[in-house]
What does this fold into?
Amino acid sequence: MTDAGTRTIKVDALARVEGEGALYLRVKDGEVKDIQFRIVEPPRFFEALLRGRMFGEAPDITARICGICPIAYMLGASQAMENALNIEVSGGLADLRRLIYCGEWIESHVLHAAMLHAPDFLGLDDALMIARDNPDLVKTALQLKKLGNDILEVVGGRAVHPVNLKVGGFYSLPDRAALGALAPRLEWGMTAARELALAFADFDYPALDQDYHCVSLGGAGEYPILKGRIVSNRGLDIDIADFETTFGEEHVARSNALQGYLKDDGSPYLVGPIARYNNNADLLSDAARDLAGACRLGPTVTNPYKSILVRMVEVFYACEEALNLIRGYAPPAAAAEPATPAAGVGYGCTEAPRGICFHTYALDDGGRIERASIVPPTSQNQKQIEADLLAVVSANLSMDDEALKWRCEQTIRNYDPCISCATHFLKLDIDRE
Amino acid sequence: MTRPLVIGVGNRLRRDDGAGPAVLDVLHRLAGQGTQPFETIELAGDCARLIDLWDGRAVVSVVDATRSGRPAGAITRFDALDRPLPRDTFLHTSHVFGVTEAVETARLVDRLPGRLTVWGIEGRDFGQGEGLTPQVTRAAARVGEAILIARATTGGDRTDGG
It folds into this structure.
């Protein structure tokens, strides 16, 4: 709406983003004066709900935080409990965990990249239009997504909120024939992911380069999923136990989700596919690096819109990695390491599809949870989302309201924000004075 | 011959969003202890999975809560093979598909089941916690009964009547 110099753009709902949120922008004299990314989804109190529960219940309870990335929560919680109880999970059990996590990356990344984010670059309003315009692409994406879900089902018992994971490992080992049957599908998956990535590489990417402080896991000698230290492109290199002394979370009145920041200077930081890639591209497989090159991704990605390409490179890598894990799988002697209740404090951090997801728990003598803290990736990225939006709006004030609204939505979707996880649709108000 | 499939979409911990799962409870209760006339699946989360769940099925019913502005407990029924679902009736949450996105995508890529009926039950309270509003509880019972009657009289879910 334009009226005597004041323009208001209002978007009642940002589609293709999980949860309920809103964006408020105030523009005066051609300058952005205020920007607020609000999460209005009510808080969910998972951490309070965990208090008093036994350590072994945490994976299944935290899995309910998200229907898209339950593995991240289950394994982050398991890892923290194992850390508190001095349990070492290695060999075939660790391989199975990495395998099921690959499944989660595949299903989550493909759904977002191909079905929800790609329409932005094709000038399409929604996922249905992409199915109408390019049904073969959608068929491929659906088949890839199903492959990821099937990995979850084979290893985790079911595709949504798997039931076979526990502190120490698994309730039962997966059927070897079912694992083996995934192999030829994963070979197809690598080809399919490559084709999708190359098709997406030809999109017209908006110009935006950000100087991100990229934070991810790293230093474990493998492309990070489940282990490593917390590292950054600005020299940060800490044990995951030091997460809470390095990173803070603050409540801002406009949002029900806590916002992450660096304690040193209060600055935002980036987690997720671009951060992972920028910190660890050398640890990708040769074939995945070749694909990144073919997609014209350099060793460092600074354009957030290209997160869609990084996701597809990671899908390719996850298919390849899952295939290697299945081919090399040696069944462990037992489905899980034994876990004995004891007092302790433990830390866990894994690379959820949207970035690092931190867990810490304190247990009493009987193994009951006294304190729980979970920091999901969308909380950590909130300040960076605002920073990206500030840059986008500032550079595009000449756009008409509808075009600017579109660009803001596209920018937010770069992060595939899971607002439900962070607390946790977006309503967009732009006041132009 | 496979049994008809009934999929209850929704989250029992978000009040009236649990309408779909509540219909499954009604079906189980009405069917009693014997062989269940339906296969049921509860789906909370990503509705893109619907396309896989109904793959190769002859008769499928999907029940989900709606948020269309109608009175709480209002029941809508769609023969999905007959016409597209309305865009703003069913809940669409996310970086995940809602029922409408799943049905219409499946239609575009030719992956709809043989027969697909989509039921909607209008919700009022989508806040946190268990339990449905009374109107939604009554509507869930009516939808469950209607699905069961259709099974008994036609061998599957039909779109005529009620």
Observations:
- Residues 1-6, 8-19, 420-426 of chain A have pLDDT under 50 and may be disordered.
- The two ends of chain A are 12 Å apart (CA to CA).
- Residues 91-121 of chain A form the longest helix (31 residues).
- The CA atoms of residues 196 and 312 of chain A lie 7 Å apart.
